[in-house]
Amino acid sequence: MKANPKPYFIVLFAFLQIGLIAQASNRGKVIINADLGKDTISRHIYGHFSEHLGRCIYDGFYVGESNTRIPNTKGVRNDVVQALKELKIPNLRWPGGCFADTYHWKDGIGPKAGRPSIVNTWWGNVTEDNSFGTHDFLDMCELLGAEPYLSANVGSGTVQELADWIQYTNHNGKSPMADLRRKNGREQPWNVRYWGVGNETWGCGGNMTAEYYANIYRQYATFMSGWANNGTMVRIASGANSSDYNWTETLMRNIPHNMMEGVALHHYSVIDWSAKSSATQFSEEQYFTTMKRALQMEELVQRHITVMDKYDPRKRVALVVDEWGGWYDVEPGTNPGFLYQQNTMRDAMIAATTLNTFNNHCDRVKMANLAQTINVLQAVILTKEDKMLLTPTYHTMKMYNVHQDAVLLPATLQNCDFALGKEKLPALSASASKDKNGAVHVSLANIDSKEPKIVTLEFRGMAVVSAEAQVLRSPNLQDYNSFESPNKIQPAPLRQVKKSGNTVEVEIPPFSVVVVEVK
Ligand code: AHR
Q1: For ligand 1, mutation pick of 151, 236, 323 (most atoms within 8 Å of CB)
Q2: Rounded mean pLDDT, 376-390
Q3: Is 323 an annotated catalytic residue?
Q4: 5, 44, 381, 518: least buried by Cβ within 10 Å?
Q5: 400 and 340 together in one domain
Q6: Do residues 364 and 225 share a domain?
Q7: Number of domains in the chain
Q8: Exactly one of 200, 249, 261, 298 is catalytic; which is it?
Q9: Domain for residue 261, yes or no?
Q10: CATH at residue 33
Q11: Which of 52, 98, 267 to mutate to test the pocket of ligand 1 (most atoms within 8 A of CB)?
């Protein structure tokens, strides 16, 4: 007869089991096939968005040339230009957003004193003096080394107005609009490649049905060609709101693919549109819900791509996520129409996980625009008079810019959980790429609010000689950079990196972003 195990054996066995389970739940693994990459991660996935909204343009980018002590170049803040160049901003969308469908570009050209004023009915009913117009924006893009992405007025504009805008910005021959541009001081065309045909046409851009908009799109797109001198115009259709797959399906079915180079998608990480909650004072539950909304981007991208694949299996038409980010209540005491919010480690988690999703789907996602660059929503820069600060989202995007135009490496992630009560989310997110010099970068986020994760990176198809990593972390999820303490959160070298043969083990602190470089 078998003897019963002694009670202390049972205790020891139980302890080991729990130890193993606990260890297993805080461990992840990424297998990276360093020799099997084929798709390029377009740098345009790292794009930004600047709307005439609150203090994004005025006070943010533009302070004007006179009556300011803030150093500027043709009215654009020098500190902002330097920060965005260091970020390697690849493109910038303008002038909206909802504002775009009220904007008439001819109001913003010519001598500034003679420009008409309008009222910005979407954002705070403030008077817009049109002092920042087409020349100001396109010259600023040249200063930034960023490609402009112009969003055309379909909701309250005309086909002629858009055709004229393209002629004005892109035609180098003699024509009425090209001559007007020259009269206004610009000889050479800017050759704008990226054009959005309306914005949120299902909502603020005209409350259209998908079928109606598809017809309107065809009409506008017909008159957009002819002025692009180098023939590489990218026409982007106003896309779906989050999970409106029918919208994408209708556009893909009804618009000939030789008339459309991109279809947009907008998705914001919002807890609840009627109770968005504070950007800085949030609970564990609110953090969890925000991350649930942010991680939904993976499903949205996958499912919109499935629809697009049905009509465009050769992936000619790009998915362009031209608005994404976290959206909270405005900072207390600020204009509710200005959408000014602070930016914490929670936002770094949104950025890190979302950018991994875009990288991993770079065969279809060719462009994206974080909303918005300065002083609005999930901004990378905040300004206050002559002061400027860089947010945790800025630092995340800067750490990730190693992926720009690098080759995506196929990677398999064995994940672990971030649990809250009975609910679970995948704690880890990752993507990997190889740059033109052969360096491999793996970007990782651990969204778990409490537990560090040990992640083993196994590299196949390369010999690992060296490994180092940077981390973005802070003691509290709610931490942010303020004007009093602008460098509280900054990337730093990660010491917990162990290399052994072609394997690298990293310990990723709770709610942190890590980018590993392997050579
Ligand atoms: O980014 C703020 C607003 O959100 C944009 O103007 C609009 O397109 C979206 O609804």
Answers
A1: 323
A2: 98
A3: yes
A4: 5
A5: yes
A6: yes
A7: 2
A8: 200
A9: yes
A10: 2.60.40.1180
A11: 98
The CB of 101 under 6 Å from ligand 1? The reply is no
In this model, does residue 3 exceed pLDDT 60? no
What is the CB neighbour count within 10 angstroms for residue 66?
Answer: 6
Which helix (H) or strand (E) element contains residue 55? Answer: none
CA atoms of 126 and 337, how far apart (whole Å): 9
Contacts of 222 (CB under 8 A, 6+ apart): 259
User: Domain check: are 369 and 457 in the same one?
Assistant: no
Burial class (CB in 10 A: 0-12, 13-18, 19+), 116: exposed
Give CA–CA dist 100/266, Å, rounded.
15
The atom number, within ligand 1, closest to the CA of 96 reads 6
- Quick check: CB of 323 below 6 Å from ligand 1? yes
Whole-number pLDDT of residue 19: 34
- DSSP code of 409? P
pLDDT digits (tens, 9 = 90+) for 300-325: 999 999 999 999 999 999 999 999 99
Residue located via tokens 């009425």: 176
Distance (angstroms) between ligand 1 centre and the Cα of 125 equals: 15
Tokens 């052994």: give the residue.
500
Residue 383 has what pLDDT? 98
Residue 57 included in any domain? yes
**Mean pLDDT calculated for residue range 274-286:** 96
- CA 322 to chain CA centroid, Å, is 7
Q: Which residue in the list 51, 249, 323, 507 is annotated as catalytic?
A: 323
Check residue 88 and give its pLDDT.
Answer: 98
Residues 318 and 286 in one domain: yes
Contact criterion met (CB below 8 Å) for 124 and 48: no
Residue 99 belongs to a domain? yes
Identify the pLDDT of residue 229. Answer: 58
Are 268 and 129 in the same domain?
yes
In the numeric block, the tokens 């129409």 are attached to: 337
Same domain? 240 vs 99:
yes
| Residue 330 placed within a domain | yes
* pTM given for the model: 0.94
Which domain covers residue 61, as residue numbers? 43-404
Q: What is the CATH number of the domain that holds 398?
A: 3.20.20.80
| Structure confidence by residue, pLDDT tens digits, 182-235 | 999 999 999 999 999 999 999 999 999 999 999 999 999 999 987 765 668 999
Provide the pairing of β-strand 147-152 with 91-94: parallel
Report how far apart the first and last C-alpha atoms of the chain are (Å, whole number). Answer: 60
